[in-house]
Amino acid sequence: MRISRADWDELIAHAREEAPNECCGYAQLGDGRVEAVFRGQNTRLSPYGFDLDGPRLLAANALDEAGHGVAVYHSHPRSPAEPSEQDRNLAQYPHWTYLIVSLAGEPEIRAWTIVDGRVEEESLEVE
What we know:
This protein is α/β, with parallel strands linked by helices.
């Protein structure tokens, strides 16, 4: 998957603005790249987990139903950009990509697929 520098910077900015809580949102994907990023609200307001607000989750589902790829993103303010046990357990969309933004040290973003608790990293290239 490819992501523009502007979208990469937007995800990092969102994570920094919401810290110490986790941020969340979603992205529209097409032809192996992030086409648009949409901020959501973490209704959990927690540094240890997230729940994407209902209207944004419905919008992400509408993109999916329209044939677009979807990625859900969230941040880990103090831990690596790797799915936590909670992330693995709550992943409900096996054909979506999960982007995790880490602010632990130098900010980084990694992409994952999570299917039935199994985790696989996808490549993520900044263009």
